[in-house]
Amino acid sequence: MKFNELNISASKSSRRVGRGIAAGRGKTAGRGTKGQKSRTGYKRRYGFEGGQNPLMQRLPKLRGFKSHKTAPENVYTGDIASIKGVVDNFSVAEAGLVSSPYVKVKLIAKGEITSKHDVKLQLASSTAIEAIQKAGGSFTATPQVQRQAKSDSAE
């Protein structure tokens, strides 16, 4: 960078006002005539709307809190009969019983289990576990499946 390439406006000094008519910003110094805004020390309060009820005062207070806990999606024992092999989040999602394999899934006792199933889900009711074990299968509680972070190598 050379001296003649420097940005002039970067070091531009502020205009001095109120220094006489010849200076171009004399007398009222760009403030107009009279009134509160022309006086020294004038500064409106934050959010002040000229006496009108301010927006922040008109809006209701948002009280309480929003719970970010998600309820588990339910799968019924009668529905898992169509799934072959291990019953886990991915096989249940593939069968269309839940919206996504990355949600908490709970097995509820509703319907008959006739075949042996190895169930690996997050939650199950006690009667559903009994029904699985009665049919010769097993239940294992697993943590919720997390989405894989996108790697930089995919670029």
Task: Please give the structural blueprint.
Layout: H1 55-58, E1 73-76, H2 89-94, E2 105-108, E3 118-121, E4 123-124, H3 126-134, E5 138-141
Task: Explain the overall architecture.
By secondary structure, the chain is mostly loops. The chain has three helices and five strands. Helix 2 links the parallel strand 1 (73-76) and strand 2 (105-108).
Could you give a quick summary of the protein structure above?
The chain is mostly loops. The protein is 12% helix and 12% strand. A three-stranded parallel sheet has the order 1-2-4. A two-stranded parallel ribbon has the order 3-5.
> Rg, please?
35 Å
Helix content: 10-25%
**Total helical elements:** 3
Question: Beta-strand percentage?
Answer: 5-15%
For the terminal residues, how far apart are their CA atoms?
35 Å
Mean pLDDT: 90
Shape: elongated
Low-confidence stretches: none
Q: How would a crystallographer describe the biggest sheet? A: 3 strands, parallel
| Category from helices, strands and their pairing | little secondary structure
Main sheet strand line-up = 1-2-4
Beta strand count = 5
The oligomeric status of these chains comes to single chain
- Taken in chain order, the helices and strands follow as HEHEEEHE
Task: Record keyword descriptors for this entry.
single chain, 155 residues, little secondary structure, 3-stranded parallel β-sheet, two-stranded parallel sheet, 12% helix, elongated
